[in-house]
């Protein structure tokens, strides 16, 4: 008799507890709000934000990849047109190298050497947020454009363009994968990014270098640590001897 009483009491108590739990869950659901991509209510990634709000257009939003306090959220550009890519702008995005033509076997000239050792940084992106962005992404990519500018003191009779790449012509638009790479990129790991991660092309008087790396799988740990680009080195063969300045334009670091 006593045992059945306790069983009945336990069932009643369990039922009452379950009902209270259900009420709490309903209250939580009513008070829950989906991430809005604002500073106060950031999302984890642009891909996530696009799934929640499919009507959003490309633009700037706030992300908090480590899902902690929103005070360290990062302002990013969401490229929903590209499937929800999370893109962070480099600082600075454009840097110049005073070109001093040397022999072909001269060492690589690094942009950081002419800028007090400073390398590319990324707006509001710290080590922790970068690590979590990699974890939330399947791939990352970045585009670099190199442009050679000739000395303005050239002879007045020379009417050719002031921007010139070795062996290039104004109508040139071709892949240069069959020639030695004239650029060197140092990634976030502090090592040079291997050439098989890059795709190089010439467009007019510019050289474009596209870098794409993949995340880890069960069989491969991934190469996400290679990006972002931190420094750029140029070989003497990339531009003609009359060039006095090289401009490197670094595109945003994008995760998808």
UniProtKB/TrEMBL annotation:
> InterPro entries, alphabetically?
Fib_collagen_C
Q: Which GO terms describe its cellular component?
A: collagen trimer; extracellular region
Instruction: Cite the record's Acidic residues compositional bias ranges.
Output: 19-31
- Domain Fibrillar collagen NC1: from-to ranges: 14-256
Q: Name one Pfam family in it.
A: COLFI
| Gene Ontology MF: a single term | extracellular matrix structural constituent
Ranges where the record places region Disordered: 16-41, 153-194
Domain of life, per UniProt, equals Eukaryota
Q: What UniProt keywords are attached to this protein's entry? A: Collagen, Secreted
Major location, coarse class? secreted
Q: In what ranges is there compositional bias, type Polar residues? A: 153-162
Q: Where in the cell is it found?
A: Secreted
- This chain's protein is named Collagen alpha-3(V) chain-like
Gene name per UniProt: LOC117561316
């Amino acid at each position: 008799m006593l045992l059945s009483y306790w069983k009945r009491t336990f069932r009643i108590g369990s039922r009452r507890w379950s009902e209270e739990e259900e009420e709490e869950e309903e209250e939580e659901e009513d008070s829950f709000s989906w991430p809005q991509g604002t500073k106060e209510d950031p999302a984890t990634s642009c891909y996530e934000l696009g799934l929640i709000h499919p009507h959003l257009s490309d633009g700037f939003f706030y992300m908090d990849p480590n899902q902690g306090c929103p005070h360290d959220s990062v302002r990013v550009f969401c490229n929903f047109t590209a499937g929800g890519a999370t893109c962070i702008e480099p600082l600075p995005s454009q840097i110049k190298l005073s070109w001093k033509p040397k022999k072909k076997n001269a060492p690589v000239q690094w942009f950081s050497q002419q800028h007090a050792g400073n390398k590319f940084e990324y707006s509001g992106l710290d080590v922790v947020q970068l690590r979590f962005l990699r974890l939330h992404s399947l791939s990352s990519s970045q585009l670099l454009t190199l442009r050679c500018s000739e000395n303005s003191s050239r002879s007045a009779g020379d009417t050719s363009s002031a921007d010139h790449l070795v062996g290039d012509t104004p109508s040139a638009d071709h892949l240069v994968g069959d020639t030695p790479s004239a650029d060197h990129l140092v990634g976030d790991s502090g090592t040079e990014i291997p050439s098989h991660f890059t795709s190089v092309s010439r467009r007019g008087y510019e050289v474009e270098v596209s870098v794409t790396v993949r995340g880890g799988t069960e069989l491969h740990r991934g190469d996400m640590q290679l990006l972002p680009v931190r420094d750029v080195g140029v070989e003497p063969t990339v531009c003609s001897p009359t060039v006095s300045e090289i401009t490197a334009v670094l595109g945003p670091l994008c995760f998808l």
